[in-house]
Amino acid sequence: MVEAGGVLIVNISSGLALAPLPGSIPYCTTKYVVVGFSETLRAEAARHNIGVTVVCPGFILTNIFRSSRQRTVLPGDKPEDSVVRTERLLSRRRCDARKVAEKVVEAVQKNRGVVPVCWEVHLGGALHRLSRGLYARLLALLTRAWYRGLDGEGT
Q1: How far is Cα of residue 142 from the mean position of the Cα atoms in its chain?
Q2: What 8-state DSSP symbol labels residue 119?
Q3: 18-40 burial, b for 16+ CB within 10 Å, e for fewer?
Q4: Exposed site from 2, 21, 45, 73, fewest CB < 10 Å?
């Protein structure tokens, strides 16, 4: 790669590396590592004319929901109901695998560093960068409300 120069490495992470959510500690941690590794490698590889891009998709309809053992099951649901509900929701979005592929191509053409994909990654990532404290407080409020709803309290 050093001899060839002009090479671009593309790593795929997740929007959760830019704007973490509770209930996903192992996932967020591994995705943070990919972003940190990519940014550091980008700085080091630049002297050899090697670019490094990390793409951070948001919530995309992939097989991850069907194959995951961690599912949010609402009261009265069967575990498979959460998969159907999630897939139905994600299929209505304008952010799909095709959009991720388009962003990868654009990132390669423009040698971009960190590439957020989907509106929630742009919004969450911007809020997280703007104020980690505000982001943490907002997330704590949302998480408490979510778990209250799951536990059937306050409804």
Answers
A1: 18
A2: H
A3: bbbeeeeeebbeebbebbeebee
A4: 2
Instruction: Please tell me the predicted confidence (pLDDT) of residue 25.
Output: 87
Place of tokens 């671009």: 8
pLDDT tens profile 27-45: 899 999 999 999 999 999 9
Residues 82-100: tens digit of each pLDDT: 677 777 777 777 778 888 9
Residue type, 85: R
- Helical H runs in the chain? 25-45, 64-67, 79-91, 97-110, 119-130, 132-151
Burial of 13 per CB tally in 10 Å (0-12, 13-18, 19+): buried
Dihedral of CA 24/26/32/38: which sign? negative
112-136 per-position pLDDT tens digit? 999 999 888 989 889 988 999 998 8
Q: Measured between alpha carbons, how far is 20 from 16 in angstroms, rounded to an integer?
A: 5
Block residue for tokens 């982001």: 135
The closest alpha carbon to 21, from 88, 92, 72, 66, belongs to 72
Q: Which two tokens stand for residue 81?
A: 């109901």
